[in-house]
Amino acid sequence: MAGPLGAVCVGGLPFLFAWTKAPLVVRVFNTSLLSLVSAISAVVYIQCGGHTPLDQHLSPEILWVHCFIPLEIAIVAHFFLNISGVSLIISATSPQSWRAPFRRMVRDMWRIYLGYALVGFLIAVLWQVVDLGPITMIFMLVPLILAQWAYAQQSAEAQAHQRTVEGLVAAVETRDPVMRGRSVQAAAVCDVIGADFRLSPKEADALHFAALLHDLGMIAPVEEERGRDLSQLRPGDIDRIRRHPQRGVEMVRSIDFLADSTTAIRHHHERWDGHGFPSGLAGEEIPILARIIAVADAYCALSSDRAGEARRSTDEILTILRARAGSQFDPRCVDAIVRNAPTVTARLSQLHAVDDTADATAGHAGWDHDLPETSDLIAFGSALR
Prior knowledge:
CATH superfamily of the largest domain: Hypothetical protein af1432
Number of helices: 15
Radius of gyration: 26 Å
Shape: elongated
Largest sheet: none
Helix content: 55-70%
CATH class of the largest domain: Mainly Alpha
Number of strands: 0
Strand content: under 5%
């Protein structure tokens, strides 16, 4: 409403000089993105017939047609341009697809944008049209403080959820070196498949958390024998594997924000042919999020380093998964990972590079319960005895 230059001064430049601990590159990015988005939105406002600046004593009809409606259109443009820019930078600098953060921000931020748009409109009208001037801020200060407080609370809650999940994932990886990095890898692959399936933001979040925590039950105590060959499965190991989905559910049952993830955690080892566990579900009886985790888990296990073996190529992994579509895996999930193989490969390459930098355990000699052949041994277990 102050024109493109005014929009840049109000919407972008404050981020460059704000008191914050954020690195300079982050502040420069925020300033550049928001300055550009604010200027474009100001142009949208003008092109839609918006008055700039506002005249005093405008009629309600003119305020509606030449202020409020153009402003709302400009706010919508600002909203989608802003979250698109943030989503693209997240995609470029992390294993996530741009779709997942984009849809999550649409879900979490549209109310905030709408609220600030209404407050901004009231400030402009009271300041200039009603001619209250700076006294306007006395009336609007409380709503602004409440809006900022609500946003800060929402952000703090999201950070607390993330720290909780990271702590649980660390427990899994500490207990079993074979699983080092697996949870994050599976979550990255699930994000890609979930975007292909066009899951709702709520389902996408449930899938992401379930993928991170689906093996939490593996940290349960198990009797070990010194000196035994960890590459060989025993009946006791099979019992531990069979029990870990339900144990994982029991461990997160009291965490409210994980309520939508528990079904996927419980059933991620079910098989399309009905020979999985713990419930022996088959086909469409298996929850879709669990089916996605199953194929993502197998892909990550097949792509990991194994002692004395070269890492499999993407073509080799996809050939194995295709051969099991309709028996172990949902064919639609296999098709989705095949369609998105370049993206999946790129995401896992980034994560493997991070693991290598962190000196993660590589070339594991232990057994991996996520490998397809382990699923076969459990489903048709006579070979273990």
